[in-house]
Amino acid sequence: MITYTPLAVVDLTGPDANPIDPAKWTTVATFTELQQKNHKIEGTPSGFALYSGLTPSDDQYVDITFSSLSGHSEADVFLRSSNNPRASGYDFELTDNGDGTVVFSITRAVGGALTALYIDVALPFTPGDAFRFVAFGTTISAYKNGTLLFSTTDISVASGKVALALFGSGDGSNAAVSAFTIGSVTDPARGGIVQHKSAVAHSSSTSVALNAPVTKGNLIVVGIADQNGEVTSYDGTKFSDNFGTSYAVAVQEYTNNGFSGEPAIAALVYALANQSGSLTVNYNDPLAGMYTLHVYEVAGYDTLDKVGVYPNSANTQVSSAAVSTSSATTRDKECGLALFQAKYGFHDPITWTGDGGNEGAETADDGTFRSSFSEGFEVTSKVVVTATATLTNVSGGTLGPAVIATFYKSAPPSNLPFLGSVTAGDAPAGASNPFLGTVQVLTVAPSGAPNPYLGKVKVLSVAPAGVPNNVVGSVVVIGSVPTGQADIFLGSVVETS
User: Fold this and answer.
1) What three-state secondary structure class fits 488?
2) What's the pLDDT score for residue 418?
3) Which residue has the higher pLDDT, 373 or 101?
4) How far apart are CA 202 and CA 321, in angstroms?
5) Structural domains in the chain plus CATH codes
């Protein structure tokens, strides 16, 4: 089930402010400011700003309520926006027609090129209407007062910020917003990257707190890139979190030569979240130098498969590199991450470019000597996976080591008989006949669980054509049960009818 989690609710209860809270809003270059006036967001009379109060998840949404949109005014909400929203992102635009309707459109921007995804030239509008605009995976959608207006699939822009533009007239009150919320979108049934965040460290320890709560059982992958320190290898004990999780190293690569003459190391470590809730990942090593930390939550995958490294030990300057797994993935469907490091010698922020269409691109850069880039991906066939990255603004440095790792979802063997839904027959005296749910064969019982007598069972649903209903071995419930019923280990069962 899709879940919408609010991460930032704009507080409009305070006094008027022009510009609106500069600690959380950054005016887009060449445009005028947004303001807070009469407990609403308005232009001055126009305004255009990025919300900088948090880094939103790639899967993001905005809830917005308009108190006014009249006099041919315009409002735009941008999702997955670059610092220049007109250059990259998704623009949800409403323009007043002056007759109780608005022109509503969704436009994609990639490299400044605009593509219309949807338009309704006469959408009925009433002050107080609430809209939800969503970018979830490759699905772009819009809702009005809880009713879906439009949904489409687009892979062009995978991540970015949230921005708001209001183009009013006069005092700006004819384009006014009375509520504005930014949040994350999650679906436990959907695999892939859920969220990610990074930090640049200037000391021997640092922490990264993910913006949204994580889900128990999801994969947590941490990328670390260190240069100019004395760390030559990692072990999982240097990593911890507030859940008390133990981390394992998936892959690492160290080099002590190359164009910059400085040592550098890159690594990926991983663990499974042992509970749900707010997660903060920590790294602590007194030998650490200048390093960056990337943290990802990944759903639907839990087992390490293939890894690969790119050392870059050549005594030349490199601005583009590819890192590949050592062999083809074991499973058709896998998810993975790649981490690239820039080595010593930069004095200005670096611009990284990864593979188009990949998920969860994350840059950590302090504008001096520390910079790294990570990106996620999913594959749907058994392939050697390659990730690439290119950096620009190269002045005295080079692209350092890179690492890659893939993960699959562990599953029981595929040659198990179909059981269907079952219910207990005649139980022994004093034993109840609980609903058993949908069951799947296991080879052995879970550790510590006995194989008790269950009574006679009967298949209620029909097996697929050609699949027999036979002796099934040990089983556990994997489907849902009626309200009030427990989901218990069932033991060994034999079909009797």
Assistant:
1) coil
2) 45
3) 101
4) 26
5) 3-186 (2.60.120.560), 192-408 (no CATH), 413-497 (no CATH)
pLDDT tens profile 444-462: 545 555 544 444 454 444 5
Q: Is the peptide bond before 19 cis (omega within 30 degrees of 0)?
A: yes
Which band of pLDDT confidence, cut at 50, 70 and 90, is reported for residue 262? low
SS3 label, residue 239: strand
Tell me the average pLDDT across 316-326: 83
Q: 383-395 burial string, b = 16+ CB within 10 Å, else e?
A: bebebbbbbebbe
Q: How far apart are CA 340 and CA 264, in angstroms?
A: 11
CA distances (Å), origin 344, targets 200, 285, 366, 391: 14, 20, 12, 13
447 burial (CB, 10 Å; 0-12 / 13-18 / 19+) is exposed
The three-point CA angle 65-67-68 to 5° equals 120
Beta bridge pairs of residue 378: 335
Confidence band for 416, pLDDT divided at 50, 70 and 90: very low
Helix (H, G, I), strand (E, B) or coil at 237: helix
pTM reported for the whole predicted model: 0.59
Q: Which amino acid is at 195?
A: Q
Q: What's the average model confidence in pLDDT over 157-183?
A: 95
Beta sheet of 320-324, edge-to-edge order: 320-324, 386-392, 351-353
Question: CA-CA distance, 196 to 374, in Å (whole number)?
Answer: 10
In the predicted structure, residue 170 carries a pLDDT above the cut 60 = yes
Listed in sequence order, the residues at least 6 apart from 306 whose beta carbon sits closer than 8 Å to its beta carbon are: 325, 326, 327, 328, 329, 330, 334, 336, 385, 405, 406
CB 453 within 8 Å of CB 486: no
3-state percent breakdown (helix, strand, coil) of the chain, nearest 5: 0, 50, 50
> First CA to last CA across the chain, in angstroms?
36
* 139 contacts: CB under 8 Å, gap ≥ 6: 151, 152, 153
For 206-232, write each residue's pLDDT tens digit: 999 998 889 899 999 999 988 766 788
Q: What is the per-residue pLDDT for 358? A: 66
